[in-house]
Amino acid sequence: MAVPEVIPISYEPHGRTQAIGRYAGGQFLGSVAYAFPEGFRPDDGWEEHKRLFSALHVFDAEGRYRDSEIWCAGTWADQQRVPHGPDSVLARARAHLATLLRTLPQRTYTDIAIRPFRFSVDGVLFGLVTGEDDGEAWAELYPDRLGFGPPWDGTYDT
Question: Which of 21, 47, 50, 95 is close enough to 109 for a disulfide, judged by CB 3.0 to 4.6 Å?
């Protein structure tokens, strides 16, 4: 089965797809995820290279990519220095995403269906990338590393 032109993603209220839905301008997909730059090979000091991003991607009603707001809250090393409270990297990333989501008029959290897209920020891949391995079609959301595939019902694997 080939990758569909528009890939469904199921809304999961307390899961990794809790910040997706529709708004007055179309559809949105928000997330908070750690990522390394493409091609990075972990070695000593990897903690400074693993960065936490908040991302908000917006799409038109038919799932065509429009724009993204990407913000780096800090590194894994920063998070280890201040692991709890409002000044932690994780708390700042979540707060930033919440602020971005509040800017979307008539926002509702629900399933979405979007088309593949991709771009890089500071060497980090963002997007919904598709491909085929051994005759099996797939799609993967980056940097979240959520995998989608047949039966293309919106559920994901990690």
Answer: 21
| DSSP conformational letter for 62 | T
Q: What is the DSSP string of 136-155?
A: EEEEEEETTTEEE-TT-SS-
The token duo for 5 is 């032109």
SS3 of residue 9 by DSSP: strand
**E strand map for 44-97:** 51-59, 65-75
Q: Which residues contact 12 (CB under 8 A, 6 or more apart)?
A: 18
| Nearest CA-CA partner of 7 in 98, 107, 131 | 131
Looking only at the bridges linking them, the beta strands covering 136-142 and 146-148 are: antiparallel
Q: Is there a contact between 55 and 78 (Cβ–Cβ < 8 Å)?
A: no
Give the pLDDT score at 52.
96
Return the number of other C-beta atoms located less than 10 Å from residue 49's C-beta. 17
Do the beta carbons of residue 120 and residue 38 sit within 8 Å?
yes
Contact status, residue 9 vs residue 157, Cβ threshold 8 Å: no
Cα 43 to Cα 31: distance, rounded to the nearest angstrom? 27
Mean residue pLDDT across the chain: 95
Residue 145: its pLDDT value, please? 95
Supply 14's token pair. Answer: 């307390």
